[in-house]
Amino acid sequence: MLDIKWIRQNRDEVQATANQKGIAISVDRLLEQDDKRKLLLQEVELLRRKRNEMAPRINAFLQQQDAANADRMRLEAKELNRRLSDLEGKHREAEHEFNQLMLYVPNRVSPDTPQGLSDQDNVEIKRVGEPAVFRFEKRDHVALGELHRMIDIPRGVKTAGSRHYYLTGPGVLLHRAVQQLAFDLLMDKGFTPLEVPLMVRTDALLHAGHFPLSQDQTYKIEDEDGWLVGTSEVPLLAYFNGEIVDVTEPIRVAASSLCFRSEVGSAGKDVQGLYRVHQFAKVEQVVICEDSLEQSEQLLQEITANAEELLQLLELPYRVMAVCTGDMSQKTYKQMDIETWMPSREAYGETHSSSNITDFQARRSNIRFRDADGKLRFCYTLNNTAVASPRILIPLLENHQEEDGSIRIPQALRKYMNGIERIQV
Predict the structure, then answer these.
(1) Which among 145, 339, 366, 378 has most CB atoms closer than 10 A?
(2) C-alpha distance from residue 167 to each of 50, 295, 395 (Å)
(3) 118-146 pLDDT, tens digit each
(4) Residue 185, strand partner residues
(5) Catalytic residue among 232, 296, 353, 354, which?
(6) CB neighbours (10 Å) of residue 30?
(7) Which residues contact 175 (CB under 8 A, 6 or more apart)?
(8) For 350, phi and psi rounded to 5 degrees?
(9) What is the reported pTM?
């Protein structure tokens, strides 16, 4: 959420950003609604003052035993209350419509964000490692998973429907190993671990900027104000809702959790294997800091570097992408994605995402800090996917396969795999 005063002063920029992000909102209508609610509030407050002034006047007439004027004023007061009730209803409606429109206003974007319409317009920043060259007929992760009895998609579909799966045996070990490696990496970087709720209230998703635009991607719990989270970013942020926090040193928190996404609108897209599934596990890092673009940029680079370090430990080739305006979410000021080489796709596939949200989430969540002068200010927030599995298993299995079908385990994972160095046929 942005400050309405800032929106009014930068209406053309806000409208242009909404258009670039593909968000259907009229800034002119928003500002007209802001004017309407303010005018109605002025009228409501004027009538309230008049009503408050009537009571002592009626009492004065009664003390003077002037029943006629007292009755006249009672009738005037009754009419005024009727008008006031009508105006208060109109003001509530105008306030509600204004608040609903505000929920669709996008965050501004950084000056160095590329302009574009989709992920095809994202810009490569750097590339690390070289894609593997296979001198044999390579297998994809599904074939490798079946060969080693690590992945069972047919039984997942039989049990839960499309985009579901079972991990078995060494597949489970790898799935848990990459998460623990990421979690330990973040602990060494000073992150505080949290075990978070997987179900949150509507307000938590609104405050995080995931609602209303991503509501169709989220599973609703029937008969409750509850939703299954698609990322632990939401409960991590909600932990601080409504609080005044100390950000003398940026707050760094992390969680490893299950995540759920409905993937509405992705029919026929990435249906093969484990790339796009309804249930997965993710290690998320969230940072809260003071309202400094310079500091938040440094922290964005830091959390992205954490994800890069993990990929280097997993010995996987990857590239870092500057995400363009058309591929960014409503809440994002600046975003960088990391794409890892996936041999079966003969292309890089997104595995990580880093975002600087500035004060967009903090305004909705009312997360503030006191500056050097003691003034309350809204914090900045950032987040990054340290690792998401089973998607990370795609490059992990495919890049480390051998000609005989065995899979080499990177050195950094072996301590989490009971010392297993290679998954043999």
Answers:
(1) 145
(2) 71, 41, 16
(3) 999 999 999 999 998 999 999 999 999 99
(4) none
(5) 353
(6) 23
(7) 167, 281, 389, 390, 393
(8) -65, 130
(9) 0.91
276 included as an active-site residue: yes
DSSP string for 31-60 = HHHHHHHHHHHHHHHHHHHHHHHHHHHHHH
Given a cut of 80, is residue 342 above it in pLDDT? yes
Number of neighbours of residue 81 by Cβ within 10 angstroms:
13
Clarify whether 353 is annotated catalytic.
yes
Phi, psi of 110, rounded to the nearest 5 degrees: -70, 155
Specify the pairing of strand 166-167 against strand 151-152: antiparallel
Describe the crossing of helices 27-63 and 11-21 by its angle, rounded to 10 degrees. 130
Among 302, 308, 350, 402, the active-site one is 350
Record the tokens describing residue 390, joined without a space: 């089973």
Q: How many CA atoms lie within 13 A of 95 on its CB side?
A: 11
Radius of gyration, CA atoms only, the chain: 28
Cβ 277 vs Cβ 262: under 8 Å? no
HEC sequence for 325-363: HHHCCCCCCEEEEEEEEECCCCEEEEEEEEEEEECHHHH
Angle, helices 27-63/67-102, rounded to nearest 10 degrees: 160
Catalytic residue among 108, 261, 363, 364: 261
Q: Which of 277, 200, 279, 264 is nearest to 233 (CA)?
A: 200
How far from 325 is each of 6, 34, 72, 330, 336, CA to CA, in Å?
A: 20, 27, 64, 10, 11
* Cβ count near 417 (within 10 Å): 16
Distance (Å, rounded) from C-alpha 34 to C-alpha 415? 59
Q: In Å, how far from its chain's centre is CA 97?
A: 24
Contact 324, 121 (CB under 8 A): yes
pLDDT digits 0-9 by tens, 10-47: 999 999 999 999 999 999 999 999 999 999 999 999 98
Per-residue pLDDT at 60 = 73
71 contacts: CB under 8 Å, gap ≥ 6: none
DSSP labels for 400-420?
Answer: TB-TTS-EEPPGGGGGGTTT-
252 part of the active site: no
User: At 38, phi and psi to the nearest 5?
Assistant: -65, -40
**Which residue in 344, 365, 391, 398 is the catalytic one?**
391
- Of 220, 203, 214, which Cα lies nearest the Cα of 328? 214
Burial (CB count within 10 angstroms: exposed 0-12, middle 13-18, buried 19+), residue 229:
buried
Which among 93, 96, 107 has a CA at the least distance from the CA of 7? 107
